[in-house]
Amino acid sequence: MTLHDPNASAALLDGIRAFINPAHVRTDADSGLHYGRDWTRMYTPNPLAVVLPETLDQVQQLVRYANEHRLALAPSGGRTGLSGGAVACQGEIVVSMERMNRILDFDPTDRSVTCEAGVVTEVLQNFACDRGLYYPVDFASRGSSQIGGNVATNAGGIKVIRYGLTRDWVTGLKVVTGRGDVLELNRGLIKNASGYDLRHLFIGSEGTLGIIVEATLSLTRPLREPVIMVLGVPDLDSLMSLYHIFRNKLELSAFEFFSELALRHVLAKGLQRPFEAGTPYYALIEFENPDGIHTDTALTLFEHCADQGWLEDGVISQSQAQAQELWRLREDISESIAPYQPYKNDIALRISKVPAFMSEAEALLQREYPDFEVLWYGHIGDGNLHINILKPADLDTAAFAEKCGTVSEHLFTVLQRHGGSISAEHGVGLLKKPYLHYTRDEVEISYLRAIKQAFDPNGIMNPGKIFD
Ligand code: 2HG
Ligand code: ZN
Question: pTM for the full model?
Protein backbone atom coordinates (compact mmCIF):
# COMPACT_ATOMS: atom_id res chain seq x y z
CA MET A 1 0.00 0.00 0.00
CA THR A 2 1.29 3.46 -0.82
CA LEU A 3 1.33 6.19 1.75
CA HIS A 4 0.50 9.46 0.04
CA ASP A 5 1.13 11.71 3.02
CA PRO A 6 4.91 12.05 3.51
CA ASN A 7 4.51 13.29 7.07
CA ALA A 8 2.40 10.30 7.99
CA SER A 9 4.91 7.87 6.50
CA ALA A 10 7.83 9.63 8.21
CA ALA A 11 6.06 9.28 11.55
CA LEU A 12 5.36 5.60 10.91
CA LEU A 13 9.00 4.96 10.06
CA ASP A 14 10.06 6.77 13.22
CA GLY A 15 7.87 4.27 15.06
CA ILE A 16 9.99 1.47 13.56
CA ARG A 17 13.19 3.29 14.56
CA ALA A 18 12.05 2.88 18.15
CA PHE A 19 12.82 -0.85 18.02
CA ILE A 20 15.22 -1.20 15.08
CA ASN A 21 18.53 0.65 14.87
CA PRO A 22 17.66 3.88 12.99
CA ALA A 23 20.67 3.35 10.70
CA HIS A 24 18.92 0.17 9.52
CA VAL A 25 15.69 1.87 8.58
CA ARG A 26 16.57 3.46 5.27
CA THR A 27 14.68 5.66 2.88
CA ASP A 28 17.45 6.84 0.54
CA ALA A 29 17.04 6.28 -3.20
CA ASP A 30 20.09 4.01 -3.52
CA SER A 31 18.82 1.61 -0.87
CA GLY A 32 15.37 1.66 -2.49
CA LEU A 33 16.84 0.68 -5.83
CA HIS A 34 19.24 -1.87 -4.41
CA TYR A 35 16.83 -3.66 -2.08
CA GLY A 36 13.60 -2.94 -3.91
CA ARG A 37 14.12 -5.29 -6.82
CA ASP A 38 15.39 -8.74 -7.69
CA TRP A 39 17.06 -9.99 -10.87
CA THR A 40 13.80 -9.46 -12.74
CA ARG A 41 14.33 -6.11 -14.35
CA MET A 42 10.77 -5.53 -15.58
CA TYR A 43 9.47 -3.66 -12.53
CA THR A 44 10.33 -0.24 -11.14
CA PRO A 45 11.19 -0.47 -7.44
CA ASN A 46 9.27 1.90 -5.20
CA PRO A 47 9.57 0.83 -1.55
CA LEU A 48 8.47 3.04 1.31
CA ALA A 49 11.60 2.07 3.21
CA VAL A 50 14.17 -0.67 3.63
CA VAL A 51 14.46 -2.22 7.09
CA LEU A 52 17.29 -4.53 8.14
CA PRO A 53 16.40 -6.30 11.40
CA GLU A 54 19.05 -8.09 13.44
CA THR A 55 17.03 -10.35 15.76
CA LEU A 56 13.96 -12.54 15.76
CA ASP A 57 12.45 -10.22 18.29
CA GLN A 58 12.83 -7.25 15.97
CA VAL A 59 11.23 -9.15 13.10
CA GLN A 60 8.29 -10.02 15.32
CA GLN A 61 7.91 -6.44 16.50
CA LEU A 62 8.04 -5.24 12.92
CA VAL A 63 5.30 -7.62 11.78
CA ARG A 64 3.11 -6.64 14.73
CA TYR A 65 3.71 -2.97 14.01
CA ALA A 66 2.90 -3.51 10.33
CA ASN A 67 -0.39 -5.17 11.32
CA GLU A 68 -1.28 -2.34 13.62
CA HIS A 69 -0.65 0.28 10.93
CA ARG A 70 -1.57 -1.86 7.91
CA LEU A 71 1.86 -1.54 6.31
CA ALA A 72 2.84 -3.95 3.54
CA LEU A 73 6.06 -5.92 4.07
CA ALA A 74 8.18 -7.43 1.29
CA PRO A 75 10.63 -10.00 2.72
CA SER A 76 13.94 -9.92 0.96
CA GLY A 77 16.91 -12.29 0.70
CA GLY A 78 19.70 -12.18 -1.91
CA ARG A 79 17.16 -10.95 -4.49
CA THR A 80 18.42 -13.31 -7.17
CA GLY A 81 14.85 -14.32 -8.02
CA LEU A 82 13.61 -14.20 -11.58
CA SER A 83 9.85 -13.84 -11.09
CA GLY A 84 9.66 -10.56 -9.17
CA GLY A 85 8.81 -12.24 -5.85
CA ALA A 86 11.09 -9.87 -3.93
CA VAL A 87 10.20 -6.73 -5.86
CA ALA A 88 8.78 -3.83 -3.84
CA CYS A 89 7.04 -1.64 -6.40
CA GLN A 90 3.95 -0.57 -4.46
CA GLY A 91 5.26 1.29 -1.44
CA GLU A 92 6.08 -1.81 0.62
CA ILE A 93 8.62 -1.89 3.42
CA VAL A 94 11.42 -4.19 2.31
CA VAL A 95 12.50 -6.49 5.14
CA SER A 96 16.04 -7.45 4.25
CA MET A 97 17.33 -10.43 6.19
CA GLU A 98 20.95 -9.81 5.27
CA ARG A 99 22.02 -8.81 8.79
CA MET A 100 20.63 -12.06 10.18
CA ASN A 101 23.38 -14.17 8.70
CA ARG A 102 24.73 -16.33 11.51
CA ILE A 103 25.16 -20.07 11.48
CA LEU A 104 23.72 -20.97 14.86
CA ASP A 105 24.21 -24.67 15.32
CA PHE A 106 25.81 -27.73 13.75
CA ASP A 107 25.35 -31.31 14.85
CA PRO A 108 27.48 -34.04 13.25
CA THR A 109 25.26 -36.81 14.61
CA ASP A 110 22.13 -35.29 13.12
CA ARG A 111 24.18 -34.11 10.13
CA SER A 112 22.27 -30.88 10.34
CA VAL A 113 22.88 -27.18 10.54
CA THR A 114 20.68 -24.37 11.81
CA CYS A 115 21.18 -20.94 10.33
CA GLU A 116 19.55 -17.56 10.10
CA ALA A 117 17.68 -16.70 6.92
CA GLY A 118 20.31 -14.29 5.63
CA VAL A 119 23.11 -16.86 5.34
CA VAL A 120 24.37 -16.94 1.75
CA THR A 121 24.00 -20.34 0.04
CA GLU A 122 27.70 -20.63 -0.72
CA VAL A 123 28.65 -19.80 2.87
CA LEU A 124 26.51 -22.70 4.02
CA GLN A 125 27.97 -24.98 1.34
CA ASN A 126 31.50 -24.07 2.45
CA PHE A 127 30.59 -24.53 6.11
CA ALA A 128 29.38 -28.07 5.31
CA CYS A 129 32.45 -28.78 3.17
CA ASP A 130 34.81 -27.75 6.00
CA ARG A 131 33.14 -30.43 8.14
CA GLY A 132 33.43 -33.14 5.46
CA LEU A 133 29.78 -32.77 4.49
CA TYR A 134 27.72 -31.36 1.63
CA TYR A 135 24.69 -29.14 1.16
CA PRO A 136 23.57 -30.30 -2.28
CA VAL A 137 21.05 -27.68 -3.35
CA ASP A 138 23.15 -25.75 -5.82
CA PHE A 139 22.70 -23.17 -8.57
CA ALA A 140 24.56 -20.38 -10.35
CA SER A 141 23.45 -17.68 -7.88
CA ARG A 142 25.01 -19.54 -4.93
CA GLY A 143 27.32 -16.59 -4.22
CA SER A 144 24.54 -14.15 -3.33
CA SER A 145 21.26 -16.03 -2.86
CA GLN A 146 20.26 -16.55 0.78
CA ILE A 147 18.83 -19.54 2.59
CA GLY A 148 15.59 -17.74 3.54
CA GLY A 149 14.94 -16.88 -0.10
CA ASN A 150 15.82 -20.41 -1.19
CA VAL A 151 13.26 -21.79 1.24
CA ALA A 152 10.66 -19.19 0.24
CA THR A 153 10.93 -20.26 -3.40
CA ASN A 154 11.74 -23.94 -2.81
CA ALA A 155 14.85 -23.40 -4.92
CA GLY A 156 15.95 -26.27 -7.15
CA GLY A 157 18.96 -25.87 -9.41
CA ILE A 158 21.41 -28.24 -11.01
CA LYS A 159 21.42 -31.31 -8.73
CA VAL A 160 17.71 -31.97 -8.35
CA ILE A 161 17.89 -35.19 -10.36
CA ARG A 162 19.80 -36.77 -7.49
CA TYR A 163 19.14 -34.62 -4.43
CA GLY A 164 15.73 -33.07 -4.90
CA LEU A 165 14.75 -29.49 -4.07
CA THR A 166 15.26 -27.26 -1.04
CA ARG A 167 12.10 -28.79 0.47
CA ASP A 168 13.89 -32.14 0.75
CA TRP A 169 16.60 -30.64 2.99
CA VAL A 170 14.58 -28.50 5.37
CA THR A 171 13.96 -30.27 8.67
CA GLY A 172 12.95 -27.21 10.65
CA LEU A 173 11.88 -23.60 10.26
CA LYS A 174 11.42 -20.73 12.64
CA VAL A 175 8.99 -18.20 11.19
CA VAL A 176 7.11 -15.08 12.15
CA THR A 177 3.64 -15.46 10.67
CA GLY A 178 1.76 -12.58 9.08
CA ARG A 179 -0.17 -12.40 12.35
CA GLY A 180 3.04 -11.76 14.24
CA ASP A 181 3.33 -15.14 15.97
CA VAL A 182 6.60 -17.05 16.17
CA LEU A 183 6.25 -20.69 15.09
CA GLU A 184 8.92 -23.36 15.38
CA LEU A 185 8.05 -25.85 12.70
CA ASN A 186 9.21 -29.48 12.89
CA ARG A 187 12.30 -28.72 15.05
CA GLY A 188 14.77 -30.71 12.98
CA LEU A 189 12.91 -34.01 13.25
CA ILE A 190 13.10 -36.61 10.50
CA LYS A 191 9.80 -38.20 11.48
CA ASN A 192 6.92 -36.22 12.88
CA ALA A 193 3.39 -37.47 12.31
CA SER A 194 1.67 -34.98 14.55
CA GLY A 195 -0.75 -33.43 12.11
CA TYR A 196 -0.44 -30.81 9.37
CA ASP A 197 3.17 -29.98 8.52
CA LEU A 198 3.13 -26.19 8.35
CA ARG A 199 6.82 -26.16 7.47
CA HIS A 200 5.90 -27.25 3.97
CA LEU A 201 3.42 -24.40 3.57
CA PHE A 202 6.19 -21.90 4.21
CA ILE A 203 8.50 -23.63 1.71
CA GLY A 204 7.60 -22.01 -1.61
CA SER A 205 5.30 -19.41 0.00
CA GLU A 206 7.27 -16.50 -1.54
CA GLY A 207 6.95 -14.31 1.54
CA THR A 208 3.15 -14.28 1.45
CA LEU A 209 2.50 -16.10 4.76
CA GLY A 210 5.18 -14.63 7.00
CA ILE A 211 8.92 -14.19 7.35
CA ILE A 212 11.31 -17.12 7.53
CA VAL A 213 13.83 -16.29 10.24
CA GLU A 214 15.77 -19.54 10.73
CA ALA A 215 16.12 -22.84 8.92
CA THR A 216 17.45 -26.22 10.00
CA LEU A 217 18.87 -28.11 7.05
CA SER A 218 20.16 -31.64 6.54
CA LEU A 219 23.58 -32.29 5.10
CA THR A 220 24.92 -35.32 3.30
CA ARG A 221 28.27 -36.76 2.26
CA PRO A 222 30.07 -34.96 -0.60
CA LEU A 223 30.15 -36.28 -4.15
CA ARG A 224 33.17 -38.52 -4.73
CA GLU A 225 35.33 -37.32 -7.62
CA PRO A 226 32.49 -36.16 -9.87
CA VAL A 227 33.19 -35.99 -13.60
CA ILE A 228 31.36 -34.12 -16.34
CA MET A 229 30.55 -35.18 -19.87
CA VAL A 230 29.33 -32.68 -22.44
CA LEU A 231 27.78 -34.38 -25.46
CA GLY A 232 26.76 -32.81 -28.78
CA VAL A 233 23.29 -33.97 -29.76
CA PRO A 234 21.51 -33.68 -33.13
CA ASP A 235 17.88 -33.54 -31.97
CA LEU A 236 15.47 -33.84 -29.06
CA ASP A 237 14.71 -37.53 -29.46
CA SER A 238 18.42 -38.26 -29.23
CA LEU A 239 18.65 -36.13 -26.09
CA MET A 240 15.95 -38.25 -24.47
CA SER A 241 17.62 -41.47 -25.61
CA LEU A 242 20.84 -40.30 -23.92
CA TYR A 243 18.90 -39.51 -20.78
CA HIS A 244 17.41 -43.00 -20.61
CA ILE A 245 20.57 -44.90 -21.27
CA PHE A 246 22.90 -42.85 -19.06
CA ARG A 247 20.43 -42.72 -16.22
CA ASN A 248 19.95 -46.48 -16.29
CA LYS A 249 23.66 -47.30 -16.16
CA LEU A 250 25.08 -44.56 -13.95
CA GLU A 251 23.83 -42.71 -10.90
CA LEU A 252 23.65 -39.18 -12.28
CA SER A 253 23.95 -36.07 -10.15
CA ALA A 254 23.07 -33.77 -13.06
CA PHE A 255 21.55 -34.08 -16.51
CA GLU A 256 21.33 -30.61 -18.01
CA PHE A 257 20.86 -29.38 -21.55
CA PHE A 258 21.33 -26.24 -23.60
CA SER A 259 20.88 -25.31 -27.23
CA GLU A 260 23.59 -24.17 -29.65
CA LEU A 261 21.93 -20.73 -29.70
CA ALA A 262 22.28 -20.51 -25.91
CA LEU A 263 25.88 -21.76 -26.03
CA ARG A 264 26.85 -18.98 -28.46
CA HIS A 265 26.08 -16.38 -25.80
CA VAL A 266 28.55 -17.85 -23.30
CA LEU A 267 31.15 -18.32 -26.02
CA ALA A 268 30.81 -14.62 -26.79
CA LYS A 269 31.87 -14.01 -23.18
CA GLY A 270 35.15 -15.81 -23.80
CA LEU A 271 34.48 -19.46 -22.94
CA GLN A 272 35.79 -22.18 -25.26
CA ARG A 273 33.59 -24.57 -27.25
CA PRO A 274 33.63 -28.00 -25.57
CA PHE A 275 34.66 -29.57 -28.90
CA GLU A 276 34.95 -28.40 -32.48
CA ALA A 277 31.62 -29.47 -33.93
CA GLY A 278 28.56 -27.35 -33.23
CA THR A 279 25.37 -29.36 -32.68
CA PRO A 280 21.77 -28.18 -32.16
CA TYR A 281 21.72 -29.33 -28.52
CA TYR A 282 24.17 -30.32 -25.80
CA ALA A 283 23.71 -32.58 -22.79
CA LEU A 284 25.81 -32.02 -19.67
CA ILE A 285 26.02 -35.11 -17.50
CA GLU A 286 27.62 -35.42 -14.06
CA PHE A 287 28.32 -38.59 -12.10
CA GLU A 288 30.65 -39.76 -9.35
CA ASN A 289 33.71 -41.57 -10.61
CA PRO A 290 35.97 -42.46 -7.66
CA ASP A 291 39.26 -43.94 -8.88
CA GLY A 292 37.82 -43.94 -12.39
CA ILE A 293 35.55 -46.92 -11.66
CA HIS A 294 32.85 -45.76 -14.06
CA THR A 295 35.07 -44.50 -16.89
CA ASP A 296 34.72 -47.70 -18.95
CA THR A 297 30.94 -47.69 -18.58
CA ALA A 298 30.75 -44.05 -19.63
CA LEU A 299 32.96 -44.61 -22.67
CA THR A 300 31.02 -47.70 -23.72
CA LEU A 301 27.79 -45.72 -23.47
CA PHE A 302 29.36 -42.92 -25.46
CA GLU A 303 30.33 -45.30 -28.28
CA HIS A 304 26.96 -47.01 -28.29
CA CYS A 305 25.15 -43.64 -28.51
CA ALA A 306 27.48 -42.45 -31.27
CA ASP A 307 26.75 -45.67 -33.23
CA GLN A 308 23.04 -45.01 -32.86
CA GLY A 309 23.46 -41.46 -34.15
CA TRP A 310 22.31 -39.97 -30.81
CA LEU A 311 25.44 -37.91 -30.36
CA GLU A 312 27.97 -36.35 -32.67
CA ASP A 313 30.84 -35.50 -30.38
CA GLY A 314 31.67 -35.23 -26.73
CA VAL A 315 34.17 -34.58 -23.99
CA ILE A 316 34.75 -36.00 -20.52
CA SER A 317 36.46 -33.92 -17.85
CA GLN A 318 39.99 -34.98 -16.90
CA SER A 319 40.35 -32.73 -13.88
CA GLN A 320 38.34 -30.76 -11.37
CA ALA A 321 39.34 -27.56 -13.16
CA GLN A 322 38.11 -28.85 -16.51
CA ALA A 323 34.86 -30.01 -14.90
CA GLN A 324 34.31 -26.50 -13.58
CA GLU A 325 34.99 -24.98 -16.99
CA LEU A 326 32.46 -27.32 -18.59
CA TRP A 327 29.87 -26.45 -15.93
CA ARG A 328 30.27 -22.80 -16.85
CA LEU A 329 29.00 -23.52 -20.38
CA ARG A 330 25.64 -24.22 -18.81
CA GLU A 331 25.68 -22.14 -15.65
CA ASP A 332 26.83 -18.88 -17.27
CA ILE A 333 24.05 -18.76 -19.86
CA SER A 334 21.61 -16.85 -17.70
CA GLU A 335 24.07 -14.09 -16.87
CA SER A 336 25.39 -13.86 -20.43
CA ILE A 337 21.93 -13.11 -21.84
CA ALA A 338 20.84 -10.68 -19.10
CA PRO A 339 21.67 -7.59 -21.25
CA TYR A 340 19.00 -8.71 -23.75
CA GLN A 341 16.28 -8.28 -21.08
CA PRO A 342 15.01 -11.80 -21.71
CA TYR A 343 11.44 -12.79 -21.04
CA LYS A 344 11.87 -15.83 -18.83
CA ASN A 345 9.98 -19.06 -18.63
CA ASP A 346 10.66 -21.72 -16.06
CA ILE A 347 8.33 -24.56 -16.78
CA ALA A 348 8.00 -28.08 -15.43
CA LEU A 349 6.73 -31.21 -17.10
CA ARG A 350 6.81 -34.90 -16.40
CA ILE A 351 10.00 -36.02 -18.11
CA SER A 352 8.05 -38.35 -20.38
CA LYS A 353 6.13 -35.34 -21.73
CA VAL A 354 9.19 -33.18 -22.46
CA PRO A 355 9.86 -34.19 -26.10
CA ALA A 356 6.25 -33.80 -27.27
CA PHE A 357 5.92 -30.46 -25.48
CA MET A 358 9.23 -29.17 -26.81
CA SER A 359 8.57 -29.96 -30.43
CA GLU A 360 5.07 -28.48 -30.25
CA ALA A 361 6.34 -25.38 -28.46
CA GLU A 362 9.25 -24.91 -30.85
CA ALA A 363 6.95 -25.13 -33.86
CA LEU A 364 4.57 -22.66 -32.24
CA LEU A 365 7.28 -20.15 -31.44
CA GLN A 366 8.79 -20.37 -34.91
CA ARG A 367 5.40 -19.96 -36.57
CA GLU A 368 4.02 -17.14 -34.43
CA TYR A 369 7.18 -15.27 -33.44
CA PRO A 370 9.78 -15.86 -36.17
CA ASP A 371 11.60 -12.63 -35.28
CA PHE A 372 12.30 -13.56 -31.66
CA GLU A 373 15.50 -15.29 -30.63
CA VAL A 374 14.39 -18.10 -28.34
CA LEU A 375 16.93 -19.96 -26.19
CA TRP A 376 16.30 -23.33 -24.60
CA TYR A 377 18.26 -24.67 -21.66
CA GLY A 378 17.66 -26.11 -18.25
CA HIS A 379 17.42 -29.09 -16.01
CA ILE A 380 15.94 -31.49 -18.51
CA GLY A 381 16.74 -34.47 -16.27
CA ASP A 382 14.02 -33.31 -13.88
CA GLY A 383 11.62 -31.95 -16.49
CA ASN A 384 12.50 -28.28 -15.91
CA LEU A 385 12.96 -26.18 -19.06
CA HIS A 386 14.02 -22.54 -19.15
CA ILE A 387 12.77 -20.85 -22.31
CA ASN A 388 14.24 -17.39 -22.70
CA ILE A 389 13.00 -14.98 -25.35
CA LEU A 390 15.47 -12.20 -26.11
CA LYS A 391 14.24 -8.68 -26.72
CA PRO A 392 15.01 -7.52 -30.27
CA ALA A 393 17.07 -4.32 -30.07
CA ASP A 394 14.53 -2.32 -32.08
CA LEU A 395 11.53 -3.23 -29.88
CA ASP A 396 10.85 -1.09 -26.80
CA THR A 397 10.46 -2.78 -23.43
CA ALA A 398 6.71 -2.25 -23.10
CA ALA A 399 5.92 -3.55 -26.59
CA PHE A 400 8.18 -6.54 -25.98
CA ALA A 401 6.49 -7.33 -22.65
CA GLU A 402 3.09 -7.16 -24.31
CA LYS A 403 4.11 -9.50 -27.12
CA CYS A 404 5.62 -11.90 -24.61
CA GLY A 405 2.35 -11.89 -22.68
CA THR A 406 0.67 -13.24 -25.82
CA VAL A 407 3.47 -15.77 -26.29
CA SER A 408 2.83 -16.96 -22.73
CA GLU A 409 -0.88 -17.49 -23.40
CA HIS A 410 -0.03 -19.70 -26.37
CA LEU A 411 2.81 -21.50 -24.68
CA PHE A 412 0.92 -22.19 -21.46
CA THR A 413 -2.09 -23.50 -23.38
CA VAL A 414 0.22 -26.15 -24.84
CA LEU A 415 1.83 -26.67 -21.43
CA GLN A 416 -1.52 -27.16 -19.74
CA ARG A 417 -2.47 -29.77 -22.32
CA HIS A 418 0.71 -31.66 -21.40
CA GLY A 419 -0.03 -31.38 -17.67
CA GLY A 420 2.89 -29.05 -16.87
CA SER A 421 3.48 -26.20 -14.41
CA ILE A 422 4.13 -22.54 -15.25
CA SER A 423 6.93 -22.49 -12.67
CA ALA A 424 9.34 -25.26 -11.75
CA GLU A 425 11.75 -23.42 -9.45
CA HIS A 426 11.66 -19.63 -9.91
CA GLY A 427 8.25 -19.12 -8.33
CA VAL A 428 5.20 -17.16 -9.44
CA GLY A 429 5.95 -13.73 -7.93
CA LEU A 430 4.61 -10.95 -10.12
CA LEU A 431 5.82 -12.27 -13.44
CA LYS A 432 3.81 -15.48 -13.59
CA LYS A 433 0.82 -14.34 -11.53
CA PRO A 434 -1.40 -13.71 -14.58
CA TYR A 435 -0.85 -17.33 -15.64
CA LEU A 436 -1.33 -19.19 -12.39
CA HIS A 437 -4.69 -20.51 -13.57
CA TYR A 438 -2.94 -22.57 -16.24
CA THR A 439 -1.56 -24.74 -13.43
CA ARG A 440 -3.97 -24.32 -10.50
CA ASP A 441 -7.73 -24.19 -11.04
CA GLU A 442 -10.01 -21.69 -9.31
CA VAL A 443 -11.09 -24.15 -6.64
CA GLU A 444 -7.49 -24.89 -5.72
CA ILE A 445 -6.63 -21.18 -5.72
CA SER A 446 -9.52 -20.59 -3.29
CA TYR A 447 -7.78 -22.98 -0.86
CA LEU A 448 -4.54 -21.04 -1.31
CA ARG A 449 -6.40 -17.84 -0.45
CA ALA A 450 -7.89 -19.44 2.65
CA ILE A 451 -4.42 -20.47 3.83
CA LYS A 452 -3.14 -16.95 3.20
CA GLN A 453 -6.06 -15.56 5.21
CA ALA A 454 -5.23 -17.85 8.15
CA PHE A 455 -1.59 -16.75 8.34
CA ASP A 456 -1.96 -13.16 7.21
CA PRO A 457 -5.51 -11.90 7.86
CA ASN A 458 -4.62 -8.27 7.17
CA GLY A 459 -2.87 -9.04 3.90
CA ILE A 460 0.38 -7.31 4.87
CA MET A 461 2.76 -10.05 3.73
CA ASN A 462 4.12 -9.48 0.22
CA PRO A 463 0.75 -8.47 -1.19
CA GLY A 464 0.21 -8.96 -4.91
CA LYS A 465 2.62 -11.89 -5.18
CA ILE A 466 1.45 -15.34 -6.44
CA PHE A 467 -2.23 -14.22 -6.59
CA ASP A 468 -4.28 -11.13 -5.81
C1 2HG B 1 19.37 -21.57 -14.39
O2 2HG B 1 19.00 -22.74 -14.37
C3 2HG B 1 18.60 -20.58 -13.59
O4 2HG B 1 20.38 -21.20 -14.97
C5 2HG B 1 18.24 -19.36 -14.44
O6 2HG B 1 17.46 -21.15 -13.04
C7 2HG B 1 17.34 -19.71 -15.57
O8 2HG B 1 17.97 -17.79 -16.81
C9 2HG B 1 17.10 -18.57 -16.57
O10 2HG B 1 16.00 -18.54 -17.16
ZN1 ZN C 1 17.28 -23.23 -13.37
Answer: 0.97
